[in-house]
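[job 4471] stage=fold_predict status=RUNNING
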Amino acid sequence: MKEFELIQHIFQASVMADTQGRDDILLGIGDDCAQVVVPSGQSLVFSMDTLVEGRHFPFDADPTDIGYRAVASCVSDLAAMGAKPAFFTLGLTIPDSDPQWLAGLAQGMAELAEPIGLALVGGDTTKGPLTITLQVHGYVETELAVKRSTAQLGDDIYVTGLLGDAAAAVPIVTGEWQVSSERFDYFYERYWRPQNRLIVGMALKRVAHAMMDISDGLAQDIQHILKASNKGAILHANAVPISAQLRAWQPDVALALALTGGDDYELCFTASKAQADEIAMITQTLGLECTKIGEVTEDGFSIEGYDGDISGWQHF
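[job 4471] inference complete, writing structure tokens
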């Protein structure tokens, strides 16, 4: 399949490329550029992620899984700023133009992109080692975008969901470890189908002082907030939320995986102690676990009850 046939028959034909009813998208796939209009009173925020076969996902992985996870990892950045998804572009480098494989990739992307209103509006394809680059765009009220740099002294530190499962899943998804079918299903899903936190991110933008997503490990990522905000923090190891499945399977390393493993794409945020009831109401209404794990301090960084390595995922 040639490049323009690939674009037309697989990606342009996908439900995620349908822009009917979208007043903000004037021109989608098929021209030199996409054309959009940013709604009044809102800012356009955007982020880019690149996934490389053998580095960010296993060789010969299911293309549907790859497609879903590629979108999930990108929209996590939108959630961290409290933004509403709008559209994305796709840069795709592939060794061969296999229509069946590409249809699977598009299906996985659409599985997440279409329900959240994230439209595919353009991109580029070329031949080479399998590499997937997505640039996602979203809208957020200009004055409400949540940054990393605005944590305040005395803030409580929270995380959504459970941590460590995705990192624990790596030897399962790569086939290095054999486990029971029940355990396989749970951890496989946690790695390939991380839950997007867009709704809670949009709800928290009115109460959170600083926020980011957890992609490279909690202990490493929280320090990005602290550095940007010129603050310190104390975390409490016994408060870090870990699944019963992970504690039962890997009791000796569960905490280390939760602190340093990454790939869970949960949210870490800081907020005033006065907002505790509001945060509880938001997360309980959404049926989402949300845990206070520490406090923002003047300087320094420590994790009470843990003396292991705190370095997370290293890209180089």
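[job 4471] summary: Residues 63-80 form the longest helix (18 residues).
[job 4471] exit 0
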